[in-house]
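Sharing a chain and its predicted structure for anyone who wants a worked example. Both blocks are below, sequence first, tokens second.
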Amino acid sequence: MLGALVKASPLVSLDSLSKVVTERFPGAIGEKNVAAIRRAYEEARGIE
């Protein structure tokens, strides 16, 4: 969900969100969350 929100909004970049998540959740948990964020970002589509 966060990845889709980042794609729809210019307020936060994907890189900055990924950095915050890995700082807050170090290790495998952070890495998995970043992967989920990136996937949601890539799969998000605008309203057509």
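Comments welcome. Residues 2-43 form one domain.
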